[in-house]
Design goal:
- The chain has one domain: NAD(P)-binding Rossmann-like Domain (Rossmann fold), CATH 3.40.50.720.
- It has 9 helices and 7 strands; from the N terminus they run βαβαβαβαβαβααβαα.
- Strands 3-2-1-4-5-6-7 form a 7-stranded parallel sheet, with helices on both faces.
- Helix 3 runs parallel beside helix 4.
- It is globular and about 50 Å long.
- Bound molecules: nicotinamide-adenine-dinucleotide.
- Nicotinamide-adenine-dinucleotide binds next to helix 1.
Length: 291
């Protein structure tokens, strides 16, 4: 896809972080922007921010865990702007209170929430928007946000949900290509990006939120690396270049390449699970490398 001006983009999780970065980039390219997000106050602020770029913007309070809410997002988008050409299934969360807990001890509520937003939210986006984009037949792109966690041995709810997004999106792209569709799919697998992801519990539904945070040292290290991560604007720039080049796998953080390679080699060598040297990574991150 090369021409974005005057087309319409829908972005879930568009009120913050990577989603907001994508929205601002869409606005800069002259697109109509539809932001779907569960957090009403942040959504209202994001609309103002994106409008400052002279874009036509609509905000729709959306809970991507709920299929009818995603359908409502499509309905509102088409009512406002007609055909949708870009869909970023981007909303995602991480369960802070599962950090440092063995995978078999993590609460069911964490699994349900994280899988609900990160995997089912993307699935509902795929089920809802693809028939619309196939029906109008214009050049379009659907980009699902996974994570580098999708290509690494990361077995908690976050990693499992992101592996699911990767597999789902690979399946979608194969089917689209078989049909000769003008719609392409892509999967975004970022490393650390400086966003509000570690405060995701702010939008957790229900009363089951037990702990906002954890004193797990791995989480502390991850937070430090997040602060040194790429900016949402850099990710947005990368994603648009990737779409113009018709890339499927979108990995904006080359610092992880060696690890992804060694993990793949471990699999093909029928060896043990690859492990990361977190201390070395932290040192490299503090020295300016963006993981
Ligand atoms: N920040 C990183 O380092 C990083 C790395 C890899 C992947 N990701 C992924 O990027 C995506 C965006 O996250 P971010 O880092 O910008 O975090 P963020 O917290 O800044 O933004 C996430 C947005 O999603 C919204 N959201 C949460 N639950 C929702 C729901 N049920 N329905 C609709 N919206 C909901 C939030 O309100 C928020 O606006 C997520 O899928 C995340 O897993 C982030």
């Amino acid at each position: 896809m090369q021409d974005f001006n005057g087309k319409t983009a829908v972005i879930t999780g568009g009120a913050s972080g990577i989603g907001l970065g994508l929205a601002e980039h869409c606005a800069q390219l002259g697109m109509n922007v539809v932001l779907g997000d569960i957090q009403k106050d942040a959504l209202d602020q994001a609309i103002v921010q994106v409008e400052q770029r002279q874009a036509r913007v609509v905000g729709v309070v959306t809970d991507t865990m709920v299929k009818t809410s995603v359908q409502n997002l499509l309905d509102e988008a088409t009512e406002a702007f007609g055909n949708v050409h870009l869909v970023f299934n981007n909303a995602g969360v991480a369960a802070g209170n599962s950090a440092g807990i063995p995978v078999w001890e993590a609460p069911d509520a964490d699994w349900q929430w994280v899988m609900g937003v990160n995997f089912y939210g993307v699935l509902y986006g795929v089920q809802t928007f693809i028939p619309h984009m196939l029906a109008h037949g214009e050049e379009s792109y659907i980009v699902n946000t996974a994570s580098l966690a999708a290509v690494m041995p990361m077995g908690g709810s976050y990693g499992v949900s992101k592996h699911g997004v990767l597999a789902l999106t690979e399946g979608v792209q194969v089917e689209l290509e078989q049909r000769g569709a003008k719609l392409r799919a892509g999967v975004l697998c970022p490393g650390f990006v400086d966003t509000q992801i570690f405060a995701a519990e702010r939008n957790r539904p229900g009363a089951e939120t037990s702990q906002i945070d954890s004193d797990d040292p791995q989480l502390a290290a991850a937070k430090a690396m997040l602060a040194n991560g790429k900016s949402p604007a850099e990710i947005a720039e990368y994603v648009f270049q990737a779409m113009m080049a018709k890339r499927f796998y979108m990995l904006p953080h080359p610092a992880w390449d060696d690890f992804v390679r060694s993990r793949t080699e471990q699999i093909l060598a029928r060896q043990d699970v690859a492990t990361m040297d977190l201390v070395a990574m932290l040192e490299r991150s503090a020295a300016g490398e963006q993981f």
